[in-house]
């Protein structure tokens, strides 16, 4: 958690307040969540080969139904490729706002079971269950309570949208359990049996990038047990800090807690156009106005914006959504607008916009000084470079066990003897 | 001298930059001078002399910048007290 220092030198956390956490975790997973949402609202769609177009570019497929997969259609394909393989394929325009709302509804339902709910991605959420034994009883009963909640939430959704549930110590164990569970069923990993459970699981359950996955397979490592059997240092030497984390996960040595959300009170600014607007310049100008209006909101004073969302209701029934998480929270209108304008340029709404809504959804504490420094683009760039250098130095030291980076310092720059002028000193970020 | 942030300055962690490297100069039968394991000297471009620290341990060096066969430039100096040869960046 990032810590800041105020103008009087006191530390405070970047979060708005202390977040509730729980080591005991239940994982709720609904695969292909956006596609399931579409199946739920378009009756009879479930039996067809369907594909959802990507929200950023409508030329490629985002999610593909199992029927379509059987014909060889895969996510990432272009529309022409997909139609070539499956002429009966039904293409659906994405409606990210709808998926977001459905997922928010799911999270809201889960908070009825536990106050500690952490969304991971659309269709994947963790529920902290520590302390619920007094209400529901054993882990199996807690899972049953979550299951009942999901069944109530699932009313109206298609049969295929069934969830998978996993329970265990830490988010990773819970996720692996959910990923191995059958449709509408749950796997409970008893406390103390995490290592035994994880050992037989394939390495694909790890959060791997394709390159590491390929390298592990080339090394003949197929299961988490095989990975955990190797020395931790050897994995760290090969794959760096990422490898160490993978090893710890595979060996069941780390139990990442579920971190509940502090319900933010978003600041919302909206603009309804008299006639639908398609010109990007006008949208960009409207965005500037919305940001300025939201920044002036009294609740914003003393806080910098960390996360924001811009949604557009399109002419007809579609919608467009851009969610931005600012690396450096800011109260500067230009810095807030920049990533949204890039999104508007790169993947603009697919139709004319009827209504534009800006929401500041998360905040970080801010002081006048911090904001002053944030406006200094050069200082921010220097700080970014320094952070990148520190990260690289840590990675090198972890891999080769010694520092190979040095500062050059002036010793006697005026000396007539060249070897007296400068010296190297270990660089320790 | 200002120590970099977070790096406490300790003298044992300092490493010299551009320390002289001992070299052997050879003169063959035809009178051509060469630097052992480096190459033959084609031309001497410049010479200069440094005398310093006479008040403690005197340093006396005769420098010369040479061009090697193939065009590479190198700076050599002779320790005029011990007679040893070194190469060093200028």
Can you characterise this structure?
The complex is a heterodimer of chains A (429) and B (90). Chain A is 40% helix and 24% strand. Chain A has 429 residues and is an alpha+beta fold. Among the domains of chain A are: 103-137 and 165-258, DNA polymerase, domain 1; 267-373, DNA polymerase, Y-family, little finger domain (Dna Ligase, domain 1), CATH 3.30.1490; 376-426, no CATH class. In chain A, the strands form six sheets. A five-stranded mixed β-sheet of chain A has the order 8-9-4-10-11. Chain A has a four-stranded antiparallel β-sheet with strand order 13-16-14-15, with helices on both faces. In chain A, strands 6-5-7 form a three-stranded mixed β-sheet. In chain A, helix 4 packs antiparallel against helix 6 and helix 11 (232-250) crosses helix 15 (377-400). Chain B has one domain. Chain B contains no helices and eight strands. Chain B has strands at residues 15-16, 21-23, 25-27, 33-35, 39-52, 59-68, 73-79, 85-87. The relative contact order of chain B is 0.21. Strand 18 of chain A pairs antiparallel with strand 1 (15-16) of chain B.
